[in-house]
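Task: sequence design from structure.
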């Protein structure tokens, strides 16, 4: 791992540079049709065809399909500092950070929502005997079942589907609320099931009003043109029935333009 700078990363070879400064048009509408295409069909539909029997092979193939070899160097960020490291090392930092945050709270059960085929389950299982989840993509759920993982079909937009959450659960989300332009449905789902939830841990990119630096402005623009989440932190902070235990903006970005904020919170 070595230090890198933003000029190396945001050079003319990075397609996002021209999009972010408006030299190339780009916009997405992040509705369920987009999720169906981008995740259910393109990503998980393709992965499903490989019929692997272990999760590591799916993870490696997923990164390979995104053009990332395990030994390829990628840029990743911590705050606004930029680093370069091989792909598996950069992802391992992200995963240790998720583990370290969760470990502190010693959960009885972990429920990951928007968990795909269970990418994070391999390391979550090391700290908690019961890990289960919910995911929109039918293809991802099918892969999960082939791998013997406890994942049900779940849609953030359907309030009644949050009933999959079991008593005394820590709810984790990792880059899945990012897929909801507004997090209101998620917070409603958490509120409705608050008696079963011990804690909520979000590793999520979101628009942050307080970003004022050039990198911050580019990150907010990245959220806007991708139609990613705009209001998770704002909605949480505006309620007086929620206690925020940890808030670390831009804690880690395996994609430096889409860095995840860490939020740990619960209902009072
Ligand atoms: C960027 S992936 C993250 C997957 C996994 N959490 C991880 O950390 O690797 C976003 C996930 O959110 C899921 N997702 C998007 N919209 C959703 C919705 N409305 N309900 C449930 N899951 C959704 C996608 O299908 C995809 O699996």
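Answer:
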């Amino acid at each position: 791992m070595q230090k890198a700078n933003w000029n190396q990363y945001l050079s003319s070879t990075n397609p996002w540079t021209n999009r972010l400064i408006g030299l190339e048009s780009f916009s997405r509408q992040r509705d369920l049709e987009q999720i169906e295409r981008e995740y259910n069909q393109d990503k998980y539909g393709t992965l499903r065809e490989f019929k692997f029997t272990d999760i590591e092979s799916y993870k490696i193939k997923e990164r390979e399909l995104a053009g990332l070899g395990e030994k390829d160097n990628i840029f990743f960020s911590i705050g606004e500092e930029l680093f370069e490291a091989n792909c598996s090392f950069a992802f391992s930092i992200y995963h240790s950070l998720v583990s370290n945050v969760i470990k502190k709270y010693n959960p009885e059960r972990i429920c990951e929502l928007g968990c795909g085929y269970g990418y994070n389950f391999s390391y979550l299982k090391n700290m908690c005997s019961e890990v289960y989840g919910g995911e929109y993509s039918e293809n991802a759920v099918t892969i999960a079942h082939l791998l013997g993982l406890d994942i049900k079909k779940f849609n953030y937009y359907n309030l009644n589907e949050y009933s999959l959450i079991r008593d005394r659960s820590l709810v984790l989300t990792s880059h899945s609320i990012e897929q909801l332009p507004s997090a209101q449905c998620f917070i409603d789902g958490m509120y409705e099931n608050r008696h079963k939830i011990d804690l909520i841990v979000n590793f999520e990119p979101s628009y942050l009003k307080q970003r004022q630096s050039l990198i911050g402005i580019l990150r907010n623009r990245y959220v806007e043109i991708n139609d990613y989440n705009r209001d998770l932190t704002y909605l949480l902070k505006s309620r007086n029935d929620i206690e925020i235990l940890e808030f670390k903006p831009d804690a880690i970005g395996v994609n430096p333009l889409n860095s995840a904020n860490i939020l740990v919170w619960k209902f009072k």
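The chain has one domain: 2-267.
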